[in-house]
From TrEMBL:
Gene3D superfamilies listed in its UniProt record: Helical domain of apoptotic protease-activating factors, P-loop containing nucleotide triphosphate hydrolases
Family annotation (InterPro entries): Apaf_helical, NB-ARC, P-loop_NTPase
Keywords, alphabetical: Plant defense
The protein, known as: NBS/LRR resistance protein-like protein
One of the GO biological process terms: defense response
Matches recorded under PANTHER family: DISEASE RESISTANCE RPP13-LIKE PROTEIN 1, PLANT BROAD-SPECTRUM MILDEW RESISTANCE PROTEIN RPW8
Record keyword Flavoprotein present: no
Length: 173
């Protein structure tokens, strides 16, 4: 939690060079309340602006396959940690028919999700090194790269870094 999964995905998603490779992009946030129908509707809304008036899983699959077969799409499925294999299969199946070059990025804190959904090995983000933590804290608190111009804050900065345990989200907060 707080190692930068979403931030890293946002950097990719918002990069102009990356955007130029895709016809469309969709960012879907799920977290704890994973519901295949809601997620599929959110994807359809992101891709074509419309939300089908149905909760029929098969009809949503068909509609998604129709939309995705003609577009190269970048999907970010953010903060998914529901690890029910049947639900994931139901969600991923229509996404796999996307036009060649489509990509799906999944951020998760659950390694089981990464194993179930990944065709590539998961990239595990690690905590930041101590010096990098000091730099992040200085940047967010002082707008500088380090505490050199504020030696009186250096000791308290070091204490804050210890308490944040290498987590960029905690440091920036």
């Amino acid at each position: 939690f707080g190692v930068g999964k979403t931030t890293l995905a946002q950097l990719v998603y918002n990069d102009e060079k990356v955007a130029g490779f895709f016809d469309s992009k969709a960012w879907i946030y799920a977290s704890e309340d994973f519901d295949v129908i809601k997620v599929m509707k959110a994807i359809l809304q992101s891709v074509n602006g419309g939300v089908p008036d149905t909760n029929d899983l098969n009809l949503l699959h068909i509609k998604l396959k129709e939309e995705l077969s003609v577009k190269k799409i970048l999907f970010v499925l953010d903060d998914f940690w529901h690890d029910n294999y049947v639900d994931w299969t139901s969600l991923i199946l229509p996404l796999e028919v996307g036009k060649s070059g489509s990509k799906i990025i999944i951020t998760t804190r659950n390694q089981n999700v990464a194993k179930m959904t990944g065709t590539l090995p998961a990239y595990q983000l690690k905590e930041l090194a101590y010096d990098d933590c000091l730099s992040v804290l200085a940047h967010h608190s002082l707008g500088r790269e380090n505490f050199d111009g504020h030696p009186h804050l250096n000791d308290i900065g070091k204490e804050i870094v210890k308490k944040c345990k290498g987590l960029p989200l905690a440091l920036s907060t």
